[in-house]
Amino acid sequence: MLVVRARLLIATLWVGSLWAIGYLVAPTLFATLSDRILAGTIAGSLFRVEAWLAVACGVSLLLLFCYRTADDHAPLRKTLLKLTLAMLLCTVIGYFGVQPFMAALRATAAATGGVMDGAAKTQFGILHGVASGIYLIQSLLGVALILKLRKLN
Hints:
This protein has helices at residues 2-32, 36-66, 74-111, 118-150. By secondary structure, the chain is mostly helical.
């Protein structure tokens, strides 16, 4: 029973931080701070912490799924593994794949006075949209993960 509760606790930490940072803190930063560059820098730092937390929680969950408990059901366990892997994949693609391109565009803009030209602005918008879509998918997968994990309690 301890393993089952640890799984739920870790998943709740992961999904809760994902939702808090992405849907509460980051939008509040942009709504509150008049300097959008500063808001973006702070949000970027928070998303970096969130990405590493996601990796830690995801790997921890995968390790805990390797430990079978008496109340584990094979189909549910398989679903939980798939959800966890899909969420980890979202982190890898979103933060470690898309974000570096966004950071490069921001760095180029900062070097030229903090303003992006039209093409860079368009490219940044597209990358931001892709990253936001991946984040939304990860958030919804997180809800499914929590609901499935609760079935084990």
